[in-house]
Specification:
Blueprint: H1 2-51, H2 55-110, H3 131-180, H4 187-215, E1 222-225, H5 227-244, E2 248-253, E3 260-263, H6 264-280, E4 287-295, E5 298-305, H7 331-334, H8 339-349, E6 353-358, E7 365-372
Parallel strand pairs: 2-4
Antiparallel strand pairs: 1-3, 4-5, 5-7, 6-7
Helix pairs in contact: 1-2, 2-3, 3-4, 4-8, 5-6, 6-8
């Protein structure tokens, strides 16, 4: 099938050049046939005025002139046709060959060989870039994105499998212990099983929410709200937990901030995730500061802590699924590992941007996100 398509494309392109040449030759011959008699009569009349009238001489001259013109035009047309056919053949090959390579590579990519790429000439870096070079570049970009998506899919499957295996193994161990009589059927054992099942349920719920957020399969309910209202809600929700962990929670709100048009619940969810992480990774006696102030046409929310901090090599991966900076923490204490991924997706749906900063391990960290101010 591919061979037929390549042959058909090359034939059509080659024939298109030949047709153009034939049309040009036809126009040349027709124009010569129509213009030669008038031009001959005009020039002959000027000669007759000077040399006298001779009808037979005119006919001979006209016949010889017509034959000469026809012969010259015919030879020129044949030469032009041969040159055009050869040029059309080589030019069509220049166009068809990269398209054939592209079709061949697209077939490989369709079969799962995402590492395939088209060779791009060095002139692509200069100003002399034609449409085929641009097409090759776009093709490589598409292949690169497909490869990246496939790698993310494989990684996601592996991560989810790993995350599910841990609680499932624990539940299976408890049940086998109960069946063998190794464990006692007491409230503590059942509580451990219930805890592991809750972990599974949280993970499944988080994965479902992440899927909905990243695919846009949810509705945002925009309302106009003041930033102070959002901050007060966060403070009220976390006040007891911070007291329990002997941590200070401080708010810093710039006065006279404009209201913003957002989905209140989603923005509170983002801040809840960031503040919850700060609470979890900040030792007792530490401090968490939540700030909001205006930055040009945006509102900047930030959550700073005096916790374990993040190393420079970990910062680029902090928003990836299932990524944790502290590998020593258990899955139970470390959450599902996709909270920051959900937070990034929610901020993106508000046309904002989120990022993390840290001076290094043990020096705390700051998570910030921008929300546009809609006037």
């Amino acid at each position: 099938m591919l061979k037929f398509i390549r042959t058909h494309l090359a034939s059509k392109l080659f024939l298109s050049y030949v047709v153009v040449v034939l049309v040009g030759v036809l126009v040349l011959v027709s124009a010569a046939s129509l213009s030669v008699p008038a031009a001959f009569e005009r020039h002959l009349s000027q000669m007759s005025d000077m040399m006298g009238n001779s009808q037979s001489m005119e006919m001979d001259l006209f016949t010889n002139y017509s034959v000469a013109v026809s012969e010259a035009v015919s030879l020129a047309a044949i030469a032009a046709l041969i040159a055009a056919v050869l040029a059309s053949f080589f030019i069509s090959r220049q166009v068809v060959t990269p398209i054939q390579r592209m079709m061949k590579l697209s077939h490989r990519i369709a079969e799962g060989e995402y590492e395939e790429r088209l060779r791009i000439p060095g002139r692509l870096q200069s100003d002399q870039v034609d449409e085929l070079d641009q097409l090759a570049l776009s093709f490589n970009q598409m292949a690169e994105k497909l490869e990246k998506t496939e790698n993310m899919r494989r990684q996601l499957i592996g991560d989810v499998t790993h995350e599910l295996r841990t609680p499932l193994t624990a539940v299976k161990g408890y049940l086998e212990g109960l069946m063998d009589g190794v464990l006692t059927a007491n409230p503590e054992t059942y509580q451990q099983i219930h805890t592991e099942i809750n972990r599974l349920q949280r993970l499944v719920n988080d994965l479902q929410e992440l899927s909905q957020v990243e695919s846009g399969a949810f509705q945002l309910e925009f309302t106009t709200i003041s930033p102070a209202n959002i901050m007060e809600t966060i403070q009220r929700n976390f006040e007891y937990q911070f007291d329990e962990h002997n941590l200070k929670l401080e708010l810093e709100i710039e006065p006279d901030l404009p209201k913003i048009l957002v989905d209140k619940d989603r923005i509170i969810q983002v801040l809840t995730n960031l503040v919850g992480n700060a609470l979890q990774y900040t030792p007792g006696g530490g401090r968490v500061l939540i700030k909001v102030h205006r930055e040009k046409s945006n509102l900047l929310f930030s959550v700073s802590d005096t916790g374990i901090g993040i190393s420079a090599e970990q910062l680029p991966n902090i928003f990836n699924r299932f990524y944790r900076t502290d590998k020593s923490r258990t899955r139970a204490s470390g959450g599902s590992g996709i909270g920051l991924t959900i937070a990034r997706a929610l901020v993106n749906t508000h046309l904002g941007r989120i990022w993390a900063e840290s001076d290094g391990e043990g020096k705390g960290s700051t998570f910030s996100f921008l929300i546009p101010i809609h006037k």
